[in-house]
Specification:
This protein is α/β, with parallel strands linked by helices and 398 residues long. It folds into 2 domains: 2-155 and 310-366, Response regulator (Rossmann fold), CATH 3.40.50; 157-288, Response regulator (Rossmann fold). It contains 14 helices and 18 strands. It has helices at residues 2-14, 17-20, 66-81, 95-107, 124-132, 157-171, 194-212, 224-227, 234-248, 263-276, 292-299, 311-326, 333-339, 375-380, and strands at residues 40-42, 55-60, 85-90, 112-115, 137-140, 151-155, 181-186, 215-216, 257-260, 284-285, 305-308, 345-348, 353-355, 358-359, 362-365, 368-371, 385-387, 393-395. Strand 9 (257-260), helix 10 (263-276) and strand 10 (284-285) form a beta-alpha-beta unit. It starts with a helix and ends with a strand. Residues 1-49 have low confidence and may be disordered. It binds beta-D-galactopyranose. The site of beta-D-galactopyranose has 12 residues, from loops. Residues 65, 67, 141-142, 188, 192, 194, 232, 262, 288-289, 309 line the site of beta-D-galactopyranose.
């Protein structure tokens, strides 16, 4: 109960007034994530005002990556607390399964879909079905490359990569130190529209130093396709990192930094560096998501940073946007000014295209850098995590 209370307070501090203010529904509490498995169908006890209860389908990619458990739990809890029925699915990172799951939601008569796509190009059939049935779709976190994506809610993905690149730049003091420095890259899943945004954001910071010779990439692998990681899998990142270390560093070549697009890939790279890198210098390694195991590595000095995205806030934006859509209200920049959200969010109608020339209106939140030094201030103080008995951070509902 204490945990829940801390979270209510944290949520009210950092989340939308729409979610927390005035209404007096004390059950409106986002969970800290890591929730139940599989498909949950929730019957709401709170009919929405003035009519029948609406149902929202929430399709998440997988439970094998920590963050999606948090997203699924936050979304489910917040939609239920706002009086909606929910159907939540996780599709084991299998596109076909996600197609089936969404098809089932449509046949169960959902009024709106929130989808974090496994493959942004793999949902055309169900997206066209949703469009034909007039069901609005919020592409959640990852853009769906289909014009029936009504809105996109995410973080500024390019900035995520930029923050990683800037971290490496500053950690190695690339502007002042003599160098050259040796560095490698690991990017995300080519099926995920976000992955190139992350990579390009980082590469745009580092490339001038590669061009000037200050940074050297001994593997020569600097193209997204060469460094991508199928389904963001730790094992895939680990294998490639081991190969790169064996082929280009076994002769004693120093490794200064390894830019990884997220925490699951960072986990594989960190393992390879810990086991297979012969040098004794600290290697700068980046990440994204603030996964608990990576926060341990950061505290232990094995990973340098993670870009944290407050998915509780992403869920708040999604809920308020869904409400506006379902109530037939305007959903544009005015949603932000009217929201009273205690966090920054930009309305962007230019950056994301579902098909050439077709822009998807987007609500983009702001990511943040977390290191060993600011971990408690950024993650514990707002209530996202707590400090466990062993001194490491753990989920608040731990
Ligand atoms: C991205 C997401 C990241 C990370 C990654 C792996 O789409 O934006 O936060 O979780 O997928 O699942």
């Amino acid at each position: 109960m204490k945990k829940t209370l801390a979270l209510i307070l944290a949520a009210c501090m950092s989340l939308s007034l729409v979610a927390c203010g005035g209404g007096g529904d004390k059950s409106n509490t986002p969970p800290a994530g890591g929730s139940n498995a599989g498909t949950s169908q929730a019957g709401s006890q709170q009919p929405s005002s003035g009519g029948e209860t609406k149902t929202v389908g929430i399709a998440m990619p997988t439970q094998s990556l920590e963050r999606w458990n948090r997203d699924g739990a936050y979304l489910d809890e917040q939609f239920k607390a706002a009086g909606y029925n929910t159907i939540v699915t996780y599709s084991d990172n299998k596109n076909e399964q996600q197609v089936n799951d969404i098809q089932n939601m449509l046949s169960q008569g959902v009024d709106l879909l929130v989808i974090a796509a496994i493959d942004g190009n793999g949902l055309n059939t169900v997206m066209n079905d949703a469009g034909a049935a007039g069901i609005p779709v919020i592409a959640y976190d990852r853009l769906i490359m289909n014009d029936n994506s009504t809105y996109y809610v995410s973080f500024d993905n390019y900035t995520v990569g930029k923050l990683q690149g800037e971290y490496v730049r500053d950690a190695l003091d690339l502007d002042n130190a003599a160098g050259p420095f040796n560095m490698e890259f690991t990017a995300g899943d080519p099926a995920d529209n976000n992955a190139p945004f992350f990579f390009n954001g980082a590469m745009d910071v580092i490339k001038p130093y590669i061009d000037s010779g200050k940074v050297v990439v001994p593997s020569g692998q600097t193209a997204f396709d060469a460094v991508a990681t199928d389904q963001w899998q730790t094992d895939v990142a680990l294998d490639r990192a081991q190969n790169v270390l064996a082929s280009f560093y076994a002769d004693g070549t120093k490794l200064d930094a390894w830019l990884c697009s997220n925490d699951s890939t960072s986990m594989g790279v960190t393992q390879a560096v810990t086991q297979d890198y012969a040098g004794d210098n600290a290697v700068v390694i980046t990440g994204q998501d603030g996964d608990v195991a990576n926060l341990r590595n950061i505290k232990d000095g094995k990973q340098s940073m993670t870009v944290y995205k407050a998915v509780a806030n992403e869920a708040v934006v999604t809920l308020d946007l869904a409400k506006a859509i379902l109530e037939g209200k305007t959903a544009d920049a005015s949603l932000i000014s009217a929201s009273g959200w205690g966090f920054d969010c930009a309305y962007d109608t230019e950056s994301y295209e579902t098909t050439p020339g077709h822009k998807c209106p987007s609500f983009l939140l702001v990511p943040d850098v977390v290191t060993a030094d600011n971990m408690e201030e950024k993650l514990v103080t707002p209530g996202y995590y707590k400090v466990g008995a062993d001194g490491y951070l753990e989920a608040t509902n731990g």
